[in-house]
Amino acid sequence: MKDAAIRLITRGPALSVALAIAVLLIALAIVEAIGGQARPEPAPWDEYLKSMEDALAAGDARAADWLLRQAHWVALGSRRWEGMLEVGDAAVRAGNVTAARTAYLTAAYRARRLRSFEGILGAVEAFAALGDREVAEQWLGVAREFAQPSESARARVRAVADNLTGRTFATEPAR
Questions:
Q1: Among the residues of the chain, which ranges form H helices?
Q2: Given Cys at both, which of 62, 123, 128, 158 links 164, Cβ 3.0 to 4.6 Å?
Q3: Is the model's pTM score more than 0.85?
């Protein structure tokens, strides 16, 4: 009994130091994880889009087209709507309206599948910027459905509709 007490007393300081180190390591891991969320990684298609912009600035249409296609494939592989909207915007800047429309449609369908109100509104604005009022109105209807539980979301749908054409789209279903 006396030997066990002596062993416990001699291990006590070492055990306390080990416990303090473990607590500090856990605290550091938490701080790093929180700090890592503040700096999101660049999207995988960003590098291609930046290079495409550089190629456009240099007047190299062939390289810009190739880089746009690469960005498209990378964004397509991500299964996210954000990348397809960015690729569509880049296609507009490159003068490729067909590629832009394809990317925007993909973004809209992905946003609907993911139930992303923001993604749907982004697609509506993109189609309106292309001058495709019919498709913008169709997707505005989807945005209206997603906005039903929230008055602020419904107000945003009305505001987007007003901004798109300078006059109100039909933001409420016909009765």
A1: 2-38, 46-57, 61-78, 81-94, 97-113, 117-130, 133-147, 151-165
A2: 128
A3: no
